[in-house]
Amino acid sequence: MFSLIKKFFRRAQPGLNQNVSFILAGIGNKGEKYGNTRHNIGFSVVDALLKKSEVVLREKGCRSEIVVSRLPHGDVVSIVKPQTLVNRSGIAIKEVLTRYNLPLSSCLIIIDDFNLPLGKLRFRRSGTDGGHNGLRSIISEIGTGFPRLRIGIGPLPENTNIVDFVLGSFDKQEIEKKDEAVNKAADTVLFFCKNGIEAAMSRYNRNN
Fold first, then answer.
1. Annotated catalytic residue 39
2. Catalytic: which of 38, 39, 99, 150?
3. pTM listed for this prediction
């Protein structure tokens, strides 16, 4: 009997995958030592999204942690944490896109940006990597036509090495502002899923 239930569950999963409307991928580095680093703010946002949604199914991809969740307004989405390290994020994102057979426009990438002040949010419909190695990897694997949400972690202090800065932890005086930005970013992602990229750009690029 148990084997029959397992077979039914395996057959049912592809149908669930077909109901996924969006891939919401936070970019970061796996491992405890990176947990509070500036480069991992994308991971923090998807963690906040999970708290605002109903978990339907936890999956383990070859190169990603995947949680299929239902958002408050009803959309079923795949919330993703690539496990390849930032500089190879494209490999994981390509795998997830293939898994769900979704267009690039349905894959939102959530990343840090040291060119924006801490807490500033900016949606983009598509574009270049802007110097972000994770985006560069994703673009090399799937092209440029995916939306992205950039979250400010700057400014970059003078005479500071970029790698040291993004892989450094938030200072004590930054934590509260970072936490506010993470929660707000999660809310903007919910808005994006319900209303689309144009509405999200119009509302949040101007008003934060």
1. yes
2. 39
3. 0.90
